[in-house]
């Protein structure tokens, strides 16, 4: 059974010494896909397996990881 990926919004610590690019690289290495980074707001969006949330939270420079609300239509 494949696990559906979940959409997440990741807030980057503005006081961190690391560049957004470095943090994004580490997030990708932890399984983040379909990455969109918004340097102006220090936010990264993407999708990831639910079991990788703690790994994303552990990345240096990450302030928070929040699962986006998903509304899917049910298949008949």
Automatic annotation (TrEMBL):
This is HMA domain-containing protein. It comes from Rhizobium aouanii.
């Amino acid at each position: 059974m494949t696990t559906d990926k979940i959409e997440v919004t990741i807030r980057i610590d503005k006081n961190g010494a690391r560049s957004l690019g470095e943090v994004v690289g580490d997030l990708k290495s932890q399984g983040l896909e379909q990455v969109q980074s918004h340097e102006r707001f220090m936010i990264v969006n993407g999708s990831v397996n639910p079991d990788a949330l703690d790994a994303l939270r552990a990345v240096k420079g990450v302030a928070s990881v929040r699962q986006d609300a998903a509304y899917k239509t049910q298949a008949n």
